Amino acid sequence: MKIAIVILNWNGKQLLEKFIPSIVKYSTQNNVHIYIADNASTDDSVAFIKRNYPAIRIIQNATNSGYAKGYNDALKHVDADIFALVNSDIEVTENWLTPVISVFNESPNTAIIQPKIRDYKNKELFEYAGAGGGFIDKYGYPFCRGRIFSSIEKDTQQYNDTISIFWASGACFFIRATIFRQLNGFDETYFAHQEEIDLCWRAKNLNFDIKYVGEATVFHVGGATLEAANPKKTFLNFRNSLFSLVKNAPGNRLGLLILSRLLLDGIAGIKFFLELKFSHTLAIIKAHFSFYYYLPKMLKKRSKTPEIKTYYFIKSIVWSYFVLKRSTFRQLKK
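Request: output the structure for the sequence above.
Response:
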């Protein structure tokens, strides 16, 4: 089984200097190759890799087209059985690949795997982007074991298992190359954020399994490319989750589902406004207008996609978290 570790880079020399050493050190198997997929960087990050890590293969993308198109373009030039898509701000650990490869070998129907993701800045905690595996609620809001909204759990080995999940984090995302190509890769309309949820949902709709493997651990800085406080991240997250609902959710009462979600987004916008975070309120408004603009395109994509009936773990994570005050995964009720 040939493994390709592919790191998407854009002007990330400082991150590469800091995090490439762990990947090189702990990825020494003969069948593992490391690639840098460069999104038209203007710094000297590519020169740094060529100078210090000549064994790493470099793929030059013509433009900075975000996470989705960046990986789609780069992976056309990668020959492997498994693509390991790893953010440039990820520190890996010894034997991080071994349990993941074992699950792929033992479970032919498993298409996608995520390891445990902990916080690089506070290594006792799970990290926001993925934590112990991802799920969504009925309205398309994502959450994780170990992270619900801004509540982050300490890792006490409560999620050291291997289980089926709904989505795997794009921060460290393993996928069979054949499945990636069968799904035509990421939806490039997303640009960045939640394109991995859409890809996982489409894989689920084709009856493939997605797993979290708690024996493999990585540490993620998070927000190294786009900080959480950046309104652009708010814009992308709110718009793109609406895209995923339209493309993939079951057709029964889809219109009512989308309307309910838009209303919930409106409440979130009011909350931001009352917190004096006006730029985030504006970002949600812009996200909705962008969603309306792309809606015909998303509906066309929907017509080509099979549907699964059960996609959500809980009806409303908003209600459970903000009203019922359930801030850990184990407090949620299916």
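The CA atoms of residues 25 and 62 lie 30 Å apart.
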